[in-house]
Each structure stands twice: as structure tokens, then as C-alpha cells.
Write a structure and sequence with these properties.
This protein has 307 residues and is an alpha/beta fold. It is built from eight helices and ten strands. Strand 3, helix 3 and strand 4 form a beta-alpha-beta unit.
Length: 307
């Protein structure tokens, strides 16, 4: 099955050039404020956490700071737990779930783990409720050294010195109806490919690392989130978003080779959350709560099984 209506930018079958990217960029409208909704929410957290600017970008005269928060009394002898959100700017609960976790539970692990949280990896995209950055690049396929996405390159550089001390990395995402109505059709158009639709799963699911799966870790997170919101069922083919379901609410990707955020570090325990905010069975607060439950379960499991 193919998309009936061609994407409104570009020529079907031909990858975009600079003119098409300019046309796409001209359509992106600022819809909310990173400064008011994210940076302002970080300010009160300075009382309990070290706040670090780890880079910045300037896009068409607009300046965006990349900000991370760390355990104040960082102890190099303790394992590191990394939480990232807002890799895709439109995935709202990833950003606000990360901030809610810090407010409510960020200091629960004092003396047992170092916590590093990057609540909004892609601030320009956050403001435009979009998946890509200013250059029409998806940061979540470009987490590698020398990345063409400034957002990805800065995060890789931030995390690189932590090395093997990172025990757990959880990356907070959403799967939305706009994945199929806008973002995947745009991707196909940008790359000169045919758009092949998928069903959007109704509920929460996880993406494990196919190269080093941790099924018991994923199950612990799923079990915790199931107390907050519903878990996505597999479709008739036994798949979730086009990938085989390997356990209830779990699929697998090769995180590192695909350039995905949760594959940046050598963490033994890593996962990507996927919340479905468009479900009639979920509220925005429930989505945030699901992200918080996932983070807490991930850290608790990693600490209990660090070996």
C-alpha cells in the first residue's frame, strides 16, 4: 500500500535538494517556547542539581542552549544513570516526563547512583513540534561522532567521557498519529522513496537493543508502566510499528548501528520508551507519569542487577 497523496514538497521519487529543504523550513512555525516551558522549569531545579550548558546552536538568528542536569554530589565510584528526552521535539512527554522525574524523584538515588538528565535534546524542534532539526535531519538516526546534526554531536560529546560508568540509559519518546500523517511521509519524500504506511499502536511500548538484549530489564519497565497506562498490543502480524514483538510491549532495534540515542553509551541496560499521547485512553499527565514510571523502574532494576 502506498500513500495516495504525494507529499506537498518535492517531486515523487527524487530526493530533496537545498530548494526543497528551504521550502520545508519555510513551513515550520514556532508554536511554543523552549525558554518558557523548558528552561524556566529547569531554573527551580538548580537548588538540587548541577545544571550544565553542553552546547548551543544558532538557527536563522535564534539561539538555543543545550542543557543537562546532574547529581550535585557526583561520585565517580557510583554507576551513572542517563535519561534523555526531547530527541524529537514533538514528543512532549519525553521532555516533561524527564523534568517531572527530576522534580519528584531525582534525588531518590543519592549515594547509590549518579543521575544525568538531558530533558530536551532538540529545542528548535520542540518549539515547532517537529521530528527533525532545522536542517531537516532526524537527530535520532545520527548519534555518532562527527554527526551532521548539531544536537546529536553535542550529546555524543557530553556522554563520551562517562564511558563504561554508564550502567543504564533510557531515552524517552512518543509514537503519535502525526508519525503517519506527516513525519514518515515527509521522510519518504525527502529521500525520494515510496511511503509505506504502518498502523500506529495504541499504547506504551519499548525498544530493546537487538545487539545486547535485556529481556528481564524490559519486562520490569513494562510491568511498572502497566500500572500507569495501557501497553500496546501487537497487530495481527505479531508486530508493533512494523517490527516483531519479542515480548509483551517490546520490540528490538540495533540501536548503535542505527545511530539511535539509547545506543550512544556502552550501558548494559538501555531502552527507548514509546508513549502514545493520541490515545483516547490516555491524558497528557498520564503520558508524563508513564515516562516517570519507566525511568524509576529502569534505574531500580539496574541498581538491583549491577553485578
Amino acid at each position: 500500500m502506498t500513500h495516495a497523496t504525494p507529499y506537498p514538497i518535492g517531486t515523487p521519487g527524487q530526493p530533496w535538494g537545498p530548494a526543497e529543504i528551504d521550502a520545508w523550513r519555510a513551513k515550520q512555525v514556532k508554536q511554543r517556547s523552549y525558554a518558557d516551558e523548558v528552561l524556566a522549569a529547569i531554573e527551580p531545579l538548580r537548588a538540587a542539581f548541577d545544571v550544565q550548558d553542553y552546547g548551543a546552536v544558532d538557527y536563522a538568528g535564534e539561539h538555543y542552549r543545550f542543557v543537562a542536569l546532574r547529581t550535585r554530589d557526583w561520585d565517580a565510584s557510583l554507576p551513572v544513570m542517563v535519561v534523555t528526552g526531547g530527541v524529537h521535539g514533538y514528543e512532549t512527554s519525553g521532555v516533561h516526563g524527564a523534568l517531572q522525574f527530576l522534580r519528584e524523584h531525582g534525588n531518590d538515588y543519592a549515594g547509590r547512583a549518579n543521575v544525568l538528565v538531558v530533558p530536551c535534546v532538540s529545542p528548535w524542534a520542540y518549539e515547532r513540534i517537529h521530528r527533525w532539526n532545522y536542517d531537516a535531519i532526524d537527530p535520532n538516526r545520527n548519534f555518532r561522532e562527527g554527526s551532521p546534526a548539531a544536537e546529536s554531536a553535542a550529546l555524543v560529546q557530553l556522554l563520551a567521557p562517562l564511558g563504561d560508568s554508564v550502567l543504564m540509559h533510557i531515552d524517552l519518546h512518543e509514537t503519535t498519529d502525526t508519525d503517519e500523517s506527516e513525519f514518515r511521509p515527509a521522510l519518504a519524500a525527502r529521500d525520494g522513496k515510496v511511503y509505506d504506511p504502518c498502523d500506529v499502536p495504541d499504547g506504551f511500548y519499548l525498544v530493546d537493543d537487538a545487539d545486547k538484549p535485556q529481556p528481564d530489564f524490559q519486562k520490569a519497565v513494562i510491568d511498572a508502566v502497566a500500572k500507569v497506562t495501557h501497553i500496546a498490543p501487537a497487530d495481527a502480524a505479531g508486530e508493533i510499528i512494523g517490527s516483531p514483538e519479542v515480548a509483551h510491549g517490546v520490540i528490538e532495534y540495533a540501536l548503535k548501528s542505527l545511530g539511535l540515542c539509547a545506543g550512544i553509551t556502552p550501558a548494559r541496560f538501555c531502552t527507548t520508551t514509546e508513549v502514545y499521547p493520541d490515545s483516547p485512553r490516555a491524558t497528557p499527565q498520564e503520558c508524563n507519569d508513564a515516562q516517570v514510571a519507566a525511568v524509576r523502574a529502569a534505574i531500580d532494576y539496574a541498581l538491583a542487577h549491577r553485578g
